[in-house]
Design goal:
10 strands; two-stranded antiparallel sheet; alpha/beta; 10 helices; Rossmann fold; single chain; about 15% strand; 6-stranded parallel beta sheet; about 45% helix
Length: about 260
């Protein structure tokens, strides 16, 4: 069995997910104006200059500090109220076409993302994704984020999670595909026989050109509802667990049939 692995931010959706959430988070009082501005600036730097492991680690630590002590229940309500507004309009048309292509070829569709479950789970359901991997935050007995993480789906850890899933599902990695925009996902891209870079950052573009990997440019975000029927009542009522924000990388709980923590 073969699979197609997709990063989420700027690969399936047109913006970094937490940058997209930034204005709504600021309006809701989760982010101060300086925090929101710093988040937006960070996203610009990541987009044009790339993000190495050191930068991503610092972003994660900032997100953890910011989220520590936040109540899960309040963030659930926030995510329910803003998911469709923020994410549903910015799904790449080209990504939807690729999902359909790989599905027709009989491959499993798998999202591999550090993005929040509030983004990953609904898209996984409506796009017919078979599995997804995401970051798992630690929550205490009072339902609050501790500031620690159980599993972080980034860099080499993504590849390790893919390998575990591959063994469980008997996936042929040599015949599988992977798509990402970021050099931090190099281990994931190297794990498959058919790596494809999408809207790559500067470092990943350089690597792809040297190695002769396929480079694709996605530039047509469309409302997901234009391509996939969406039950918006279900979307508003879906169970959502956490939004951990620093404007760049957030920490999420793994939802699905398998546990990668």
């Amino acid at each position: 069995m073969e699979a197609a692995f997709f990063d989420l931010d700027k690969t399936v959706i047109a913006r970094a997910s937490m940058a997209a959430y930034g204005p709504a988070l600021h309006r809701a009082g989760y982010l101060s104006a300086p925090m929101a501005l710093r988040a937006a600036w960070g996203q610009l730097l990541f987009r044009f200059f790339g993000a190495n492991e050191g930068k991503m680690a610092r972003a994660r630590e900032t997100a953890l500090r910011l989220a520590a002590g936040w109540e899960q229940e309040g963030l659930q309500r926030f995510a329910r109220d803003h998911l469709a507004e923020v994410i549903e309009p910015i799904v790449y048309d080209e990504a939807i076409d690729l999902f359909a292509h790989h599905r027709a070829e009989g491959r499993l569709l798998i999202l591999v993302s550090a993005s929040p479950i509030e983004i990953v789970a609904p898209l996984a359901d409506y796009l017919g994704v078979d599995e997804f991997i995401a970051t798992t935050p630690e929550i205490d007995d009072d339902g609050k984020y501790t500031g620690a993480v159980e599993f972080y789906a980034q860099g080499p850890d993504k590849a390790e999670a893919i390998n575990r899933l591959t063994k469980s599902l008997s996936i042929d990695l040599a015949g599988s595909w992977a798509y990402s925009d970021s050099a931090t996902d190099l281990p994931m891209l190297e794990a498959v026989g058919h790596p494809v870079v999408v809207n790559p950052d500067r470092e990943l573009r350089r690597i792809a050109e040297v190695r002769g990997w396929l480079i694709r440019e996605f530039d047509n975000p469309v409302p997901l509802g234009d391509r996939v029927p969406i039950d918006r009542n279900w979307l508003a009522a879906s169970l959502l667990t956490a939004v951990l924000v620093a404007g760049t990388v957030t920490l999420t709980r793994r939802l699905g049939r398998r546990n990668f923590s």
